[in-house]
Amino acid sequence: MYCNQVFVADNIKEVIPEFLLLLKGVIDCPELPLNVSRSFLQSDGYVNKISTHIIKKVADKLNGLFKKDRDAYCKYWDDINPFVKYGCLKEEKFYKKVAKSIVYKTIGGGYITIEEYKLVNKDHNPDTVYYASDVVLQGQYIKNFKTSGIEAIILDGQIDNHFISFLEYNDKETKFARIDSHISESMKDDQNHMTKFSEDDSIAIKEIFTKVADSEMLKIEIQGLKNTETPAIILLSEESRRMQEMSKMYGGMFGEGAMPTDETLIVNSSSDLIKTLLVLNSEDGRGDDVEMIARHIYDLAIMSHKPMNPDLMSAFIERSNKILAIVAKKKI
User: Fold this and answer.
1) Per the CB 3.0–4.6 Å rule, which of 64, 67, 112, 231 could disulfide with 273?
2) Which has the minimum average pLDDT: 20-34, 113-127, 141-155, 302-316?
């Protein structure tokens, strides 16, 4: 900072908003006294005007780049978005100025605004914004969305949980839901009679997976999905997951097991593997095979939903080796 080209100080946090400290530049303030203290800077009205002006100029620059050269803007977005989001959380005026220029990376690789997202998903629950927080772990859910033609955005930054709550507070008509919390009607294959099980078959499948899951809290539903390659997936409601994350954030203040999991296992009746499982279940002496396959399907669903604990992972690897050995023997 300079006063009439006379150096005053550098790295003045009282003048530059915290979320803009990554910027480099020079400010020449002719009305600023040369002998300044931190307390003076914090209370001086002229300094506050400078800070407000800097915020406005940065917001105008972002909006201008978004409108004039959106491709360049999106190239920078992955690097600058944490600072922009943090600025929105810290300064309401900044958020109001840049709100329409905030873009989100999609699972398809593009960048869109919330308004554009709603237009793209107008036939798939337009008031809900679906997002992925881990593109690797949630790869199976992303595939389901792509198969069904539903768009989702990627929110995988440390600040994004807070930013989601902030956006919902400022826009009451928009709700965010992670892609593993909900099955959209567009993902279902209810029109195909081949995906529907009889009541007896549904009961049999539920009994099989209830046994291998060994969890009183887990709900099991039979649903035909358009993605026939996925035998089963696990859903956790957005509300339940947020409460669990809040509990972890505050050091498990609610106690172990105090928060309900509200998990649902969706067994895909469109899957050939599930249909084969039903056939095996009707044959005598195949109980062990049915249990092994069902347990493997359940573990695969868990792996797509959350990290497995060491014991479950060891059992999964051991079972995988056993299945490979059985297949290899049949090929020989």
Assistant:
1) 231
2) 20-34
- Cα separation of 104 and 213, whole Å? 37
Of residues 148, 220, 153, 154, the one with CA closest to residue 184: 148
Q: For residues 8 and 34, is the Cβ–Cβ distance under 8 A?
A: yes
Give me 164's structure tokens.
């989601």
Structure tokens at 127: 């008031």
Regarding whether 226 and 325 lie in a shared domain, the answer is: yes
How far apart CA 169 and CA 131 sit, in angstroms, is 17
pLDDT tier, 21 (very low <50, low <70, confident <90, very high otherwise): confident
pTM of full prediction above 0.70: yes
Range of the domain at 258: 188-331
What is the CATH classification number for the domain harbouring 232? 1.20.120.790
CATH code where residue 171 lies: 3.40.50.11260
Q: Reply yes or no on whether the pLDDT at 28 is more than 60.
A: yes
Is residue 11 domain-shared with residue 69, that is, in the same domain? yes
Burial 153-171 (b: 16+ CB within 10 A, else e): bbbeeebbbebbeebeeee
Q: What is the CATH number of the domain that holds 74?
A: 3.30.230.80
- Do the beta carbons of residue 78 and residue 105 sit within 8 Å? yes
205, 260, 211: which is closest to 236 by C-alpha? Answer: 260
Enumerate the H helices of the chain as residue ranges. 38-43, 45-68, 70-90, 92-98, 114-120, 139-147, 160-170, 199-213, 238-249, 272-281, 287-305, 310-331
| Cβ count near 311 (within 10 Å) | 8
Number of structural domains (the chain) is: 3
Which of 95, 115, 144 is the C-terminal boundary of a domain? 95
Kindly tell me the sign of the dihedral angle through the C-alpha atoms of 30, 35, 38, 39: negative
